[in-house]
Amino acid sequence: MKKLLLLASLIISFSGFSQKVKDSVLSRKMDKYRELSVSVPQSYEKNSKKTYPLILLLDGDYLFDAFQGALSYGNYWDDLPEAIIVGLHQNKEGERFDDCTIDETTGLPEGKGASFFEFIGGELLPYIQSKYRIGSFKMIAGHDLTAGYINLFLYKDAPLFNAYACLSPELALEMETRIPSRLAAQQNNIFYYLSSADGDIKKMKEDVTLLNDNLKLVKNPALNYKYDEIKDASHYSLVLHSVPNVLYQFFATYKPISSSEFQEKIVKMESGYVDYLKNKYDLLEKTIGIKMPIRVNDFRAIEAAIMKNKAYAEFEGLAQLANKSYPKAMLGEYYMGRYYEISEDYKRATKAYQNAFTLEPIGELTKEAMLTKADELRTQIKK
To answer: Strand 134-143's sheet: what is its strand order?
Structure first.
């Protein structure tokens, strides 16, 4: 209960980091307007070329605030990226049940459920992409009935979404075998999250357990899969436990280098520190479509690993990487200065620090610090 109260307070406290606005889209397939809640990041207006991951929520009436709060909190600490959240409202006139109509004999959408399926792919998604700057990463999420329904998009030869968050899904006919089969066949990176609770609805939990057993047998390097069995939770309270777990799973490559990553992995390497850093950000772009400058603190972590393991030659590569990420800043020249200084080439080191002085400060590096380094090395040259 304390954990739920904490999560709820975080949702309230951090929901102001991005704006929540109402929108609507006319569905000709369904012959009516569908209401949306939309949240765009604070930085959205500052950079007109920047694109963002999409988080599309069915059951947006109650899932929206949970996702927005968790995402805002994680982004505040730079553990999660900014994203555009679109919540589809489904609480009018039995819309939720009509939307998710599935033929019991085929396990496929029928009637209003088929129209809703065409609406998502043929109307809603194109509308969102035309109005908002959506990147290549598209996630869809739902709870119980809608969580089961979103799996239908996996049945397409080219799934519309990269990531699926199924919170205690109500599974349709043969989904326990069809979903693993479809995920096993995917060649592009795909993310799948599944959860249930120990206090869940019995039939749903049994089906989810069977689905998880089958998914554990899937051997596909393109699949990123996680199953959560939430302890001390009900069918409804599991949502507040699942949401942050979903986000941290799907956006794991976004996180900066942590102290545990540094101690348990990086510092134990014998070489290849610069390649590790470059590959980390290449993977970020490949998996969730985010291209961003390497964080200064991540550069400093690799610098610390180089110094600890005396792999000083790697400072040259680190300098090149720094100049690529921050061409106007002094970071690259600073690393060349470190390299020459350790090599006892004090003239070149002095020159590098002087060059750094003419560039923009970054992180803890200041013009005064660069000037001081250059002055100290001049005394070494005189000796």
So the answer is: 19-27, 32-40, 84-88, 52-57, 134-143, 163-167, 190-199, 223-234
The helix or strand, by DSSP H or E, that contains position 355, with its residue range, turns out to be helix 346-357
Q: In DSSP terms, which residues pair with 360 in a beta bridge?
A: 329
Tokens of 346: 């004090």
Question: Does residue 248 sit in the same domain as residue 279?
Answer: no
Tell me what pLDDT residue 383 has. Answer: 59
Instruction: Answer yes or no: are the C-beta atoms of 102 and 174 closer than 8 Å.
Output: no
pLDDT digit string, tens, across residues 268-297 = 999 999 999 999 999 999 999 999 999 999
Task: Answer with the one of 254, 281, 299 that is the final residue of a domain.
Answer: 254
Looking at 214, 231, 254, the residue that finishes a domain is 254
Q: Structural domain of residue 29, as residue ranges?
A: 2-254
Domain at 303, CATH number: 1.25.40.10
Residue 235: which of 99, 144, 348, 359 has the closest Cα? 144
- Cα–Cα separations (whole angstroms), residue 29 to 22, 88, 151: 21, 16, 20
SS3 for 312?
coil
